[in-house]
Amino acid sequence: MRAIVIGLGNMGLSHALALHAANGVEIVALVNRSPRTLPDELKNCQFLTDIDEAFALAPDLVVIATYSDSHAPIAIRAMEAGAHVFVEKPLATTLNDALAVVDTATRLNRKLIVGYILRHHPSWQRLIAEARGLGGPYVFRMNLNQQSVGDEWATHRALMQSTSPLVDCGVHYVDVMCQITDAAPVQVQGIGLRLSDEIPEDIYNYGQLQVRFSDGSVGWYEAGWGPMMSQTAYFVKDIVSPNGAVSIVDAASDNSAEIEGHTKVGGLLVHRLSGDEHITLEDEPGHQALCDAEQRFVLRAILEDIDLTRHINDAIQSLAICIAADKSIRIGMSVQL
Fold it and tell me: Nearest-CA neighbor of 229 among 329, 148, 154, 153?
């Protein structure tokens, strides 16, 4: 299978390494707008700065890890050129653009996979299973605030040229909520604040959303980026039901911007009315291992013609919730879905 990877930031390089290690895959081009230092494993790959040259190589698979506002147009172009697509989250920065990507995949019979890395993490799968076992309705309490400085803050500022932390990160954790409840979202409320003059005037680097589901479940998620952010209680992952609660424990590191810590679970505390159970989760996969798992899934989806309907519907739903929160922040009112 001939593959190209577009966008060679942290995620793009990790996906390229995953494809390099996969059987039956030839990386025919790595694409980035500016020169990039490549790891040894990728130094023999063709490096291009022109996306037109890359598409001329007739890839079977295009991996998109660019800034969010370019995801939709590149994905549509790739599918129209004959390729299947893996695109990093969020699928798009507007719901209409996301639906256009999905419509293109359906019309052309292309596989479309969105980079929801937590879906491939065994510890997060266990969290979801334990929560579903308790039964709803649920209260979801989640956040991921990052005290980013230096290069990390520069990366976050670049991301915020097109999207807020609430949308960029929120889709992951709202997707977890949706997997647990299976209910449709009905109402979203958001609050947000611009805490830095270094970001665009219409972007906020702190935001919180509240979502209400049709089964009565409710949830909140908050995300903040920047050197001003507190590292107190920056990593809360807590699910409460009438029969108890499931919480991630032992996961937080001293560095809230450390990417390895964003997926780590460490252990679960399952609280039932009959007593508590502490579940130790050993040998958790690191960031690269999770990207490897994602790309193995992508290849299986293509080669085995896996039905991705639920995957795509969930990606659209989680994005719709986060975009509704963004709209709520801008208009100062709750949004009905």
Answer: 148
Q: Could you report the per-residue pLDDT of 192-223, keeping only the tens digit for each?
A: 999 999 999 999 999 999 999 999 999 999 99
Only one residue has tokens 């549509």, namely 76
Q: Answer yes or no: do 197 and 87 share one domain.
A: no
| Same domain (yes/no): 103, 186 | no
Inter-residue contact 118 to 124 (CB < 8 Å):
yes
Domain stop point among 52, 80, 115 = 115
Strand, coil or helix: what is 247? strand
109 phi and psi angles, rounded to 5 deg: 55, 45
* Contact in structure between 112 and 84 (CB atoms under 8 Å): yes
Same domain, residue pair 223 and 80: no
Nearest to 116 by CA among 169, 76, 67: 169
Boundaries of domain holding 264: 119-284+319-336
**Would residue 302 count as lying in a domain?**
no
Within the chain, what is the greatest distance between any pair of CA atoms? 63
- Shared domain for 141 and 217, answered yes or no, is yes
Reference 190, options 204, 175, 173, 169; nearest CA is 204
191 CB contacts (<8 Å, ≥6 apart)? 207, 208, 329
Whether the model pTM is above 0.85 = yes
- Residue at 297 is within a domain: no
Looking at residue 92, which CATH number applies to its domain? 3.40.50.720
Torsion angles phi and psi, residue 149, rounded to 5:
-135, 165
Instruction: Report H helices in 210-305.
Output: 287-303
The count of domains in the chain is 2
Residues 63-114 have pLDDT tens digits of 999 999 999 999 999 999 999 999 999 999 999 999 999 999 999 999 999 9
Strand pairing class (206-213; 47-48): unpaired
